[in-house]
Batch of 2 targets.
Target 1
Amino acid sequence: MTARSITATLALAAFAAFAPSVSAQSAADKKTDKPAMAHPKPAAEMADLKIFDGKWSCSGEGAMEPGGAMMKMDSSVTGRSDLGGFWKSGVVKGAPMAGGPPFEGMYHMTWDSAGKKYVMFWVDNMGGWAQSASPAWQADKLVFTGDSQMGDMKARVRDTFTRNANGTLGHVSEMEVGGRWTKMMDETCRRP
């Protein structure tokens, strides 16, 4: 026998010795009737974010910087249930303000079952990002508070969404400046 055929024979013998134990182990697992791990389901609280689904046309006013002059602003928002219903995702597109570039951003919201709160992540086309949280709807208000960053500027932020009786959705965005909340945006969104 050559060295190669001896190695092949030893490998085959090792496999033959190992295979019955694998089969026995598999059979033992089947006998214990362990239930297969159930696929997780979205939290019931995700249903309370359904208002963010669909298309919205928004108008109001916003500032280019904290404490800056408020200017007319218009945007569109498209939201949807995402990733098996575990997330609400949306795209915001805003018309240019004061000769600036068009604005675009994305949000992602979910329910943190361990922390008993909603979380929201935001990113935009100016390099900005934010991470915030909200305990739940309080009557018709959902208030997210967290941290944001754009370039080297970091700030606390607060976004308040209001479900209005006429079917519109109000949105006020604020930034903490010198220990005080400063309004950066105040808009009303309607179904087109």
Note: Residues 1-34 form one domain.
Target 2
Amino acid sequence: MKPTKKLAIGVALVATMFALPFAVQPAAAATSTASPYCSDPTEITNADHGKTITLRAGQCATLSLDPEWVWDTPRSSSRAVLVYDVPTFVPDQTWGLKAGPGGTATISSTGRPDCDPGEVCPLIVRLFEVHIRIVPYGAAGAA
């Protein structure tokens, strides 16, 4: 594990220990439809690059990109899909997606190799892109 990742993990753990007592909420608040965090989301990875994923209105997805690369925060091409950070205990390349009431969006990000300081690092950039189609809740053909 790289020294910078060890430091980031330590900082994340300390921050979590201090923030956790303040983050506890009643069960009713945790299930609020206003929250972008969902349980049992659809998984999207680098293997889905270029594909069209169908989500139901209000459904969530987890976007997990190759951890050997440093990825820019993904962007949505429209308001049909919200992109948000997923709180984790370790730094990773994971974000959440939440489908709005309908429409389409393209989620894109660029990545570069994760190199150690002083290491010769190739000057290449990788594009990740996935298309999201949103169908009404309960619609046939949603995956």
Note: Residues 3-135 form a domain with the Immunoglobulin-like fold (CATH 2.60.40.10).
